[in-house]
Amino acid sequence: MMPPRTNQPGGGQAGGSGPGTRRAGGRWSRARRDKADPQGTPRSDNHRSAGTSPLSDPEDTTDPLPAEERQIRTTFLRLRGTADALLAAADAGRSAATGAYEIAERDAARRTHRAVQKAEADADNAYEEARDTLANRVGRIAPFAASADWDAPGWRSDDWLGTGPARYVRIGSLSVPGADPRQSGAHPDQLPALVPLLDVGSLGLIAEGDDKDWPIRTMHSVLLRALAAAPPGRLEIVTYDPRIRGVTSPFAALRKAGNDLLADPLATPNELLARLTLLRAAVMRVAELAGAHGVPDLATLTEVTGVQPEPYRLVVVCDYPYGVDSRAQTELIRLAEGGPHRGVSLLVHHDPRVVPDDGVNPAELLRHLNVARGRNSAITVNALPAVTVRPDQPPPRELIERVSARVAEGARRGAAPVVEFEPLLPEPDKLWTEDAIRGMTAKIGRAGLDTVELELRGSDPSLPNVLIGGASGQGKSNLLLVLLHSIAASYSPDEVAMFLLDFKDGLEFDRLGPRPGRPWHLPHARVLGLEGDRAFGLAVLRYLDGEFRRRAEQFRLAGANDLAGYRTLRPNETVPRLLLVIDEFQVLVAEDDDIARASIVILETLARRGRAVGVHLVLASQTLSGIETLVTKERSIFGQFPWRVSLKTEASESEAVLGRQNTEAAQLRFRGEIVFNREYGDPAHNRRGVVAYADEQRLDALRRTLWEKAGRPAAPRVFYAARPSDPNLLTAALQRVLTDAPPGDDTKFALLGLPVDVDPAPVAFGLTADPGRTLAVVGDGRDDAFGTLGAVVWSLAAQHVRGGAEFVLLDAVGGDAGSPETALLAEAAGAYDHGVTRYTGGAVGGGLSELARIVDERIASGGKHADLTAERRPIYVLGIGLHRAARLDHYDDTGTVPTDALRTLVREGPLVDVHLIGWWNSLRVFSEHVGYEYAPLVGGYVFLRVPEADVQGVLGPYLRYQAQLHRGLFCDLSHGGRPVPVVPFGLPERGR
Ligand SMILES: Nc1ncnc2c1ncn2[C@@H]1O[C@H](COP(=O)(O)OP(=O)(O)OP(=O)(O)O)[C@@H](O)[C@H]1O
To answer: Do residues 404 and 227 make contact, with C-beta atoms less than 8 angstroms apart?
Structure first.
């Protein structure tokens, strides 16, 4: 009895049949066996086919069989051999028994009959054993989704998804010898008919007659099986559908994971050619990696390295050779030849009625494929010679859609394998042991077992600059951090200095600087420009441009051609390479304005010539395509960027970053996965890798170690676009101002803020007993106005001996109670025991009148250059929001008009050491208060948020000004100074 066979997913059950049945019909009768072979293959043919494999072309000796396949072939041979032997034994035994029965005694006949029965049973067992082994083996090489019936329960669960790339898939079923599918009551003894696919082969489908239906059905079933079996996201379907039949449309749900798993079908020969070229490049990459690791195919490579460097690709070609020109044909043949072991298999539907293009001979492609040919009822497969295969029913559409959706979901959830950063870093005792004389190398990730090394060099070969792309969220910030920390760990700050600009909204580089309570920082960072300030970006470029020119001259005088030459001549000098990294650099250059134009000019210079003096650029962007301002500069700037690195992004961005026709970054699947290329994006030199993951805690620990190792150096220049200058820097700023002042100069400096510049020489207004030493802060922005006035008060207070100055605070913005900020100003002055007088609300006018009286008195009693006795201490008058002061132009109780008093302060105050520093929120009110005739006596202006026209009204019609939070424009008119953008200090105690 043959037991029910359920031990492999695709197999049906084989019903049992007793000896009687055998005798009556002869399970092993020749007739039956021949019926099982509808083509009536002669016995000798059967013997020949028994000597072939069910799975591969016997003529094909070029391709050694995988071990698994070889075993199956052997078992299949055994099965057929056993069946044949059994049949022969049964036939012989039966006729012997019949003869014996007729001519001999009963007992002898019975004995003979028993012997026949035993022979049949033995053969039956042997058959079953071989058949089970075969079923098991088939189940093993094409498990679960690769061969199961469509109604198998496993399709309803996720358990079958991602069990492994389908090396063999079922396309139908075949009857093994001896089973009769047509005998009622008897279950056909069937096996799944498998064809080789991923990692092993390609498949061609040829419809005979008018039956075009089964190739499409078979395509669907092959695609579905392959898709379900591959780890989600690791198999991509590329479709060439020149007759636009929508063959792969049932799989549309795959697009929920982006456009990679099922890219839009290609429909023209050019599109096909472009894609095949990229696929060839991918095949070459896998071939190279596989060769380097000494493994035969992508599956083994993945197993050995733990990283699948490329996804599998199934290239579906419909109606071949329709729409295939000779160039595409050549590429298809190449892929059919070399693709399968490297992850690219073809699934070609051949329409023999199509007249091929010139130079296209379909046979040349088909000979590299396993071809299935036939019609709905029966097909022959050249991998299964002399066997008729019944094609499977198509998978239900609902099943295709469900599996596609599940695979897309799995792909979306999945991530690239995480590459650890630590193993790429030098051992702790090897930190900073590299020198950057010739260049510097960042170890940023892995490509298989190899390390991805970005080597930046001036020459031999010239690899100075890197262009980096990648869509949002794909890991660009992580990549930049890995790059910076890798260099920082290998080279000391004497070898490499970093200028880092971030034009993103986020604050990725923020962590590289110090923070409150965390003094350590990346000691290589000289400048951190955060939150994307374009003016500061330009300032950094100008600084580097200056450095470039300075070094060029220095090297020239020393007789050196480049940094390496100079360092060899002067081994004891410290001349670090300068690494400028700009994230989202397109923000700096995309607008059509002065900043963009000036930035582009400098970038061009640094890109072309910076390498010689050791300046290197790393420019990163998520949207580079379509930037008008760069179009004409593409060559002159990016022509100097041999390194191209892209994380996953759209095809157009991929081309913008990697190079024309290089859309490979659009094929990437996972965050952190990159295409890198050091040949200016030539697609033939694309390589793929995975960037190491920079865990912030570890990076922070590394920065701390490096900072300690560097001897706890001073913080870099950190510039936040959207923040006021750090009031903690006030002391250092004042020291810098006083140090820069000429010796013996007794000017008192009112600190205003820091410039938008790399080297933060502070912006200050000098107060001397000269006409014009009045400062007007004009514009909206209470915080910035108070920040400015706070720095003024604090800095002036600090420059006088204790109790040596008077501060008069005219607070028009805080009502009668006075504003809290004014209280802070009073505190700052009081801390040095200076006199502090406050006038608030309605008293401000009176205060002005009182001050005018003092000025008059001082003039009357000593005039200009009076001695600074205790009674004649300098008086600093802070006009706080004078636009809010009521009725300044009305007579007060003393018969004075406060605006007149104000004009007295402006006209004569400075001469007797009474200095007005006043804030008005508008130029109009300021002008009305001071009077148009006296306004020119105001020597210093800080513009905050005012219309450009107001600034132009004072500083000239050509000046461009765009108001911005925490930004001002300072100009010292009486010293003929140029307008300087300034970032006001914040109020030190804000928030308390
Ligand atoms: N190589 C990687 N390995 C593992 N995880 C990564 C890798 N790169 C990035 N990630 C993770 O992906 C997320 C996004 O990364 P990242 O912030 O670097 O992307 P981004 O491209 O800079 O994004 P955006 O431009 O939107 O700020 C982060 O949570 C990060 O931890």
So the answer is: yes
CA atoms within a 13 Å half-sphere pointing along the CA-CB vector of 478:
25
Q: Which residues pair with 419 in a beta bridge?
A: 692
- Angle among Cα 824, 828, 829 to the nearest 5 degrees reads 120
Which residues 6+ apart lie within 8 Å of 473 measured at CB? 671
pLDDT at 83: 58
Alpha-carbon distance of 396 to 414, in angstroms, equals 27
Ligand 1 contacts CB of residue 307 (under 6 A): no
Q: Is 476 annotated as a binding residue?
A: yes
State the pLDDT at residue 745: 86
Give residue-wise pLDDT tens across range 222-243: 999 999 999 888 999 999 999 9
- Residue 527 tokens read as 């400048």
**474 labelled ligand-binding:** yes
Q: Is 952 annotated as a binding residue?
A: no
ipTM of the complex in this document: 0.97
Which residues, given as ranges, of the chain have pLDDT below 50?
1-65, 97, 100-101, 179-188, 865-866, 868-870, 990-992
Structure tokens at 874: 């300098």
- Residue 473 Cβ inside 6 Å of ligand 1? The answer reads yes
Distance 475 CA to ligand 1 centre (A): 3
From the CA of 413, how far away is ligand 1's center (Å)?
A: 14
Answer yes or no: is the C-beta of 136 below 6 A from any ligand 1 atom: no
- Which atom of ligand 1 is the closest one to the Cα of 692? 1
Round to whole Å and give the CA distance between 384 and 58. 9
Instruction: Indicate whether residue 506 lines ligand 1 (CB < 6 A).
Output: yes
pLDDT tens profile 155-174: 987 778 888 899 999 998 88
Q: Tell me whether domains 19-413 and 727-984 share a fold.
A: yes
434-720 is a CATH 3.40.50.300 domain: yes
Predicted pLDDT of residue 72:
63
Round to whole Å and give the CA distance between 576 and 574.
Answer: 6
- Is 88 close to ligand 1, i.e. is its CB under 6 Å away? no
Q: What is the CATH number of domain 19-413?
A: 3.40.50.300
Q: Whose CA is nearest to atom 5 of ligand 1?
A: 693
Ligand 1 atom showing the smallest separation from residue 478 Cα: 18
Domain positions in the chain: 19-413, 434-720, 727-984
Beta strands 835-840 and 525-530 are: unpaired
Encode 671-726 in three state secondary structure: CCEEEEECCCCCHHHCEEEEEEECCHHHHHHHHHHHHHHCCCCCCCEEEECCCCEC
The continuous run of DSSP H or E covering 918 comes out as strand 914-920
CATH code: domain 727-984 is 3.40.50.300
Query: What is the position in ligand 1's atom list of the atom closest to the CA of 471?
Result: 21
pLDDT attached to residue 2: 33
CA 694 to ligand 1 centroid distance, Å: 9
